[in-house]
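W.,

You were right to be curious about this one. When I first looked at the sequence I had no strong expectations either way, so I just let the prediction run and decided to look at it fresh. Below is the sequence, 127 residues in total, followed by the output.
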Amino acid sequence: MFLKITKVFFLVSVLAGILSFGINLLNIEKISNPYWFVSILFFLSTGLLINFILFKKYADPKDFVFKIMFTSMLRLLLCMIGVFIYSLIDKPHMVSFALHFMLHYILFTIFETSYLLKYTKTQIQKS
């Protein structure tokens, strides 16, 4: 199961990279950011780590729901901390980085949520 979601995360990473590369090709100074790949690496690493924790064996379905809620909150907190740290490091490019970061956050969240919905439906059907 973890291998499937790893493939999904790498596919989403490639898609996010193409999206950010395309935005940078527009050459609009306010939205172009040379460090767009940092947010992709951030989401890839946190997503894989959180899903590794999430897909460990669980005994109670309520425990799985709690883990989903907890990991979503943890990822949002880590995102806020990451953007804050970047704002301290590179203030002139903060707005463009935040734009790329939000796009990547939305993209990864959509794919992860759709994957989790498919996973829970298959688990319900197996029961």
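Here's what jumped out at me. The mean pLDDT is 81. And, maybe more interesting for your project: The chain has one domain: 2-126.

Coffee later to discuss?

I.
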